[in-house]
Design a protein that fits this description.
six-stranded parallel beta sheet; Rossmann fold; 2 domains; alpha/beta
């Protein structure tokens, strides 16, 4: 029997690039196993950005971890801020995804479906105080009506997407808090000397609390969340807390964005007074434009997104039966 016409190639960073798929995270690990067992040809390669950027015609479909590759046979993938939602995007992920320029019309979203979806995410994440990164389980008492600043530290995405440094962002906020207390949390995985220096400079300042609290405790105490482009902006929407971003993000449709420090005060005031369409945006973003790895029709949806973006039908990947499975 002839094999599939096209294969699926996963381009992953070194620690995730084991040829047998053993290093793949979550959804991609399940994809490797499921597609292989169903008769597909799945290969894992070490990600080579230069080679990907220069890639010419190919019969295969390529999934690139945290990529920004635009090619007719490429989809870029990563966790879409919150588990179990994942990008399969033809342009990139986060602040480079196709959603940056996609139009969002709250009136075009089914309000009843959005309300139900929003409630499910609140029950799953907010009530259980769960986040993508493990959080402190003990509750933390924090000042009410605060501005919650979430530091992300130095990484390739944040350095590329930021409109200013985190130190400049924090200085802008502290220069005009509007009388609100400020809560600051460093990223739990940060190892950046710049972040530690920034935190040290904040210790003991009047009205400023540095904490390792659970993000949901911070958001419950906050009137506003501030970050460069953190997933907490989306988590904050589940608390109905508006966000101000100091970097490029595909969440900008439902947040204020500051490109220069002088724009902070006006952005803060707009964020605090606008009637934000949190329910419809969360539904549009997650349910409408990402892959839900917990959905019962996950593989049909995955193959549908691949076909829409690349023109490669499931049958060409040897996965026609999987696409039709309930």
């Amino acid at each position: 029997m002839a094999g599939p016409e096209a294969g699926l190639i996963l381009h992953m960073p070194g620690p995730m690039a084991a040829p047998d798929g053993s290093g793949l995270p979550g959804y991609l690990g399940r994809l490797f196993t499921t597609f292989t067992e169903a008769g597909g040809r799945v290969t894992v390669r070490r990600r080579d950005p230069a080679a990907l950027a220069a890639m010419e015609e190919t019969e295969d479909v390529h999934l690139v971890w945290q990529g920004r590759i635009r090619h007719p046979r490429v989809l870029n993938t990563a966790v879409a801020y919150l588990f179990p939602f994942w990008y399969l995007d033809p342009e990139g992920v986060y602040g480079a995804s196709s959603l940056v320029t996609a139009p969002f019309d709250p009136m075009a979203v089914n309000a009843q479906a959005a309300q139900a979806f929003f409630a499910r995410q609140c029950n799953r994440l907010v009530l259980r105080r769960e986040s993508r990164i493990a959080q402190k389980r003990e509750p933390t008492a924090l000042p009410a009506h605060a501005i919650a600043i979430f530091l992300q530290g130095c990484s390739e995405p944040t350095e590329r997407l930021r409109h200013m440094t985190e130190a400049e962002m924090v200085a802008a906020v502290l220069a005009d808090t509007g009388g609100r207390p400020v809560i600051v949390k460093p990223h739990p995985n940060t190892a950046d000397p710049e972040t530690f220096e920034l935190i040290a400079s904040l210790e003991g300042l009047p009205g400023v609390t540095v904490t390792d609290a659970n993000v949901h405790d911070m958001l419950a105490a906050a009137d506003l969340s501030v970050s460069l482009c953190s997933s907490v902006a989306l988590e904050g929407m589940l608390h109905r807390v508006p966000a101000v971003l100091f970097g490029r993000s595909d969440l900008h449709h439902c947040a204020e964005t500051v490109t220069q420090a002088t724009g902070w005060t006006a952005a803060r005031d707009r964020a605090l007074t606008r009637n934000w369409p949190f329910e419809t945006f969360v539904h549009w973003f997650l349910a409408g434009n990402t892959v839900n790895a917990g959905a019962p029709d996950l593989w049909a949806r995955t193959l549908g997104r691949i076909e829409t973006a690349t023109g490669i039908a499931p049958e060409a990947l040897g996965l026609g039966a999987l696409a039709k499975a309930p």
